[in-house]
Each structure stands twice: as structure tokens, then as C-alpha cells.
Design brief:
Layout: E1 10-14, H1 18-30, E2 34-38, H2 41-51, E3 55-59, H3 67-77, E4 84-88, H4 93-101, E5 106-109, H5 114-127
Helix pairs in contact: 2-3
């Protein structure tokens, strides 16, 4: 059932794994979010500059520009940047600590339950 607070909120999914991106698009759309997908970090940054989404779900490991480089640039683009949820298959704490230093709002390890991600999205968009 769509969530009333999700209407008119735009989420950008940046992930080079098309299957994951489409799964996230479907799940987020089902609860009422508007969703766009970028397949690499460069495309994601271009989209952010053009459309200014309310929240970004960002894969860490991507070709051309990693999630870390995208996150660094996002934090430079705006004084009040959109919240970012970083998703990754990397289990190392060093990467999580670096993402947190760059200002990531949530860090989720793959594989994850869709409910876990939706709860994070809802929490971040209610507080932003």
C-alpha cells in the first residue's frame, strides 16, 4: 500500500547492476516514490545536478566513478545535500568508516531485505 508521506518524493538509484536497480525501482514505486535510475556514477551526478532528487541510493563499487567519488562530489555540490544511502557487497569496516566520514546517511550491506531499505528511505525522507 502506498505510503502517504512518500508521494511527491523523488529517489535516485545509482547502481551498475541493472537487476538490483530495477528491483529497487519496483519496490520504491510500489510504496509511492517517484524513482529514477542511473547506471554509473557519472550519470548519477549529472542527474543530481539536473533534477535534484530528494534521496539517493548509491552503490559503492561501480565503473567510471565509484560511489565514494560520487559521494564526495555530492557533498561539494550543495550546502544541504540530499540524504544518501550507500549499498555495498563489501563487508569491510574500513569502507563503511570512510563513507561515514564523507557524510553518508545510511550504509547497507548486500544482500539486504527490501524492508530494511524502505525503512531507511522512509526515515531519511521524513527527517529531511
Amino acid at each position: 500500500m502506498p505510503n502517504a508521506k512518500s508521494f511527491n518524493k523523488h529517489v535516485l538509484v545509482v547502481d551498475d547492476d541493472r537487476e538490483i536497480a530495477e528491483t529497487l525501482r519496483f519496490a520504491l514505486t510500489e510504496v509511492g516514490y517517484e524513482v529514477s535510475v542511473a547506471i554509473d556514477g557519472n550519470q548519477g551526478l549529472a542527474y543530481v545536478e539536473a533534477k535534484n532528487p530528494d534521496l539517493i541510493i548509491l552503490d559503492m563499487m561501480m565503473p567510471r566513478r565509484s560511489g565514494f567519488l560520487v559521494l564526495e562530489r555530492l557533498r561539494q555540490l550543495s550546502e544541504i545535500p540530499a540524504p544518501v544511502i550507500m549499498i555495498t557487497g563489501n563487508e569491510g569496516t574500513r569502507h563503511q568508516e570512510y563513507a561515514e566520514m564523507l557524510g553518508v546517511d545510511d550504509y547497507i550491506h548486500k544482500p539486504f531485505a527490501i524492508d530494511r531499505l524502505l525503512k531507511s528511505v522512509d526515515n531519511l525522507l521524513v527527517t529531511s
